[in-house]
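We append the chain.
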Amino acid sequence: MFPLIRTNLMPLVVALTGMTGTITAQVTSEDVNWSSNFFAAANRDSTGGRLDGRYTFHLGVFHGAPAGWEPTAANTAQWAQYWKTADAVSYNTLTSNFSSSYTAKAQVEGVSLGGKRGYVWSCDRGYPAAEWMLLTNPLWIWPSAGSTAPGGFSTTWTVDGSSAIVGQVGQVGQGGVHLRTAAVLGSLPPLLRWEMWREAHFTPGEIVGEDATVSGWQADPNGNGRTNLVEFAFGTEPRTARVDGAPVEGTMEVGGERYLTLGVARDPNAAVVITAEVSSDLVSWYSAGTHVTLEQETPGSLMFRKLTPMSGSNPFGAMRLRVSLP
C-alpha cells in the first residue's frame, strides 16, 4: 500500500502596492501609453493558434550587454540577463489586444531608462519550449523621468509601424496577421517580479485596495483552490478557472530504498521561492536539513525527495510545498 502524499500549498501574506496595469489617457510627456490594435483580425502563435491569457507583454529595455550587442533570433538565450521590465500587462482575450500606461520613473531595477531604445517582449513564459515576440521602433526612445519629451519622442507607442525581431519578422501587420509569435527553445523569459505580475493581472483599484478576494496574495479570484501567490509561482492564470501543472506525487529508489517525491512545474524566471516540507503524522512538518532535499531542478520544474526511506516501521509519509516571496 502506497503511503499518503499530501500537497498543501501555503502562501505568504504580503501587503504591497502596485502600479497601473490598464491603459489611461495621455497626460504628460512622461506617460508611455503602449498597445496593440483593439479587435485585431488575427493574433497568432507559430502554429496558427490564437493568443490567449497565458501571454504577458513586457515593456522595457536591454541594459548591461557588451558593446555592439543587439537582441536577435540567434541570441535569445542571453536576453533575460540583460532585460529590465518597466511595465507588464496580460493579453486581453475579450478585446484581442494588449494595452497599458506607464509613467517614467527615475530608475527601473537600478537602471535609468532615459535615452534607451524601448522594446515590447511578449511570451507565454514556457520552458524549454515557448512562444516569443519582440517588437521595437526607432521612435521608441525612453524619456527621462520628470523631463519634457525630446524631439521625435512619442508618448504613445503602438505596434503599428514597429518591426519584429522575433515573431513575424519584418513590419507588424503583414500577411493578414496583426501579431505573430515564434517558437523559441531553451531560453528563459524575462524575470517576473511580484509587483509586475500583479499589475499584469489586476486593475489599479484592485491592487491599491489590496482586495483580499481579488488581488491579495491569499485571494483565489478564479476559485480553483490556488492562491494568487501559488498562481504566480506556477506560472498559471489567476483569472481563469482551471488548474494547470498540478504537483506530481511519486516515489523513487536510491541505494535500494524507496523514497517519497513531489515534483512541480514552475514559472522558469519568477521572483519566488518554492520549498518542500515533510511529515510522518500531519502535525509536525520539517524542511531542509536531514528531512527533505531538492533532488532535481530545471528552470521549469523542481522535484523534492523525503530523506527518510519508506519501510515497514515507517509506512506513512506526507509532503507539501511552501511558496514565499524572496
Notes: The radius of gyration is 22 Å. The chain has two domains: 1-16+210-326, 31-205. The chain has a mean pLDDT of 83. The helical segments are 79-82, 194-201, 204-208, 228-234.
